[in-house]
Amino acid sequence: AQSVTQPDIHITVSEGASLELRCNYSYGATPYLFWYVQSPGQGLQLLLKYFSGDTLVQGIKGFEAEFKRSQSSFNLRKPSVHWSDAAEYFCAVGDGQAGTALIFGKGTTLSVSS
Amino acid sequence: SQTIHQWPATLVQPVGSPLSLECTVEGTSNPNLYWYRQAAGRGLQLLFYSVGIGQISSEVPQNLSASRPQDRQFILSSKKLLLSDSGFYLCAWGRMTGVGGYTFGSGTRLTVV
Asked: To the nearest whole angstrom, how far is the Cα of B42 from the nearest Cα of chain A?
């Protein structure tokens, strides 16, 4: 069965420090991978997506993610975290087929300390 | 540009009362539409999705139902709410292929008392 695992429920990083949020997936076909961010009480905003090609993808707000097929991972990174990055982050996987839905991980909450 | 509207933003309803949450999309046609529920620590649970008018797929047996009376309108309903229906409900739309990911509405916080 398809699944997405975000091993870290909660992460705290200092402002200005680097960030890596982990995402592992189990998917039979070639996956389409996404990272979303959610501020408290808000909907989800798409940060970046991977379909094919270059395995390092750039997103909004200075985020990037790297697809590693051998490790079934799609980790999200940012070189220098800002206080405004504090939010919940979701990884999702899909197959790009009509009529199917994305599968989301349970999310990682990021806190930023000053 | 495409926009998605979801309302109301917050709702407090007594147990046993009916529910109707509405979601509409503008600026696109034939969208795939989705209802998710989010509970603390559980991530996003897919409730329903629709690939066309009158076409509803249910992912989880529950006290809720969904309808799509128009191409860009998706409604989540219940005849009698339970306490366990409390949560944050999110509507989303995506293109037919699903390649582009989803665009989410701003959500509805439902509290059943």
From this structure: 5
